Amino acid sequence: MKQSFYLPVLFVFFSLGNACNLETSPEPVEVVSAIDEKIEKVEAAPAQQDALTAQQLKDIETIHATFTEVYAISLNETTKNFRNNQDSGREIEIWMKMVETYEALTKDGQFPKLEQRQEVFSVILASTMMPLGTIKDKVEFKELPESKVDEIYSQFMSKFSPK
């Protein structure tokens, strides 16, 4: 996997979340700590494009709406983060696959607690950067059994093909 595509966006997402210190929807701390050492080495990507297409903006709104409960960040900041990505088209594509996976897993009320949904998001997010074994080694799950982590990872990876 090419981690360089997603790390700048994650850096901005997580650093903004830390700066905001939002108590109503805590960020997935386990994933943040698991990838901290990688993020520290990544510089924010320079803005490569000023304008996003109408479809990309619609996708960004979908991404924001889907993950707001598990990762609180404004739509404006979300859009800015994608705009500043070196390959925002590819990044949006990856996040839309994350949306698809998250919605499929959470639509039937399988994860009724917010903490469970935050961990589902953590697994999906971590899956964009590291293999399953590393996720299990570095991320502490309090709400999800290992079998669910395996299932979430497999479901996402079946949709995800890094370039």
The total number of structural domains is 1
Low-confidence stretches: 1-26, 37-49
Please outline the major beta sheet.
none
Question: Whole-number average pLDDT?
Answer: 79
- Write down the secondary-structure element order: HHHHHHHH
Percent in helix? 55-70%
In whole angstroms, the N-to-C terminal distance is 7 Å
Question: Structural class, judged by helices and strands?
Answer: mainly alpha
DSSP strand content = under 5%
Radius of gyration (CA) equals: 15 Å
Instruction: Give the CA-based shape.
Output: globular
Strands, total number:
0
Count of helix runs: 8
List keywords for this structure.
single chain; mainly alpha; globular; disordered N terminus; 163 residues; 8 helices
How does this model look, in words?
- The chain has 8 helices and no strands.
- With 163 residues, the chain is mainly α.
- It has one domain.
- Helix 3 packs across helix 4 and helix 3 runs parallel beside helix 5.
- The relative contact order is 0.17.
Could you give the topology of this structure?
Elements: H1 7-20, H2 29-39, H3 54-67, H4 75-83, H5 88-106, H6 114-127, H7 132-138, H8 146-157
Helix pairs in contact: 1-4, 3-4, 3-5, 5-6, 6-8
Give a nutshell description of this structure.
The protein is mainly alpha-helical. 61% of the residues lie in helices and 0% in strands.
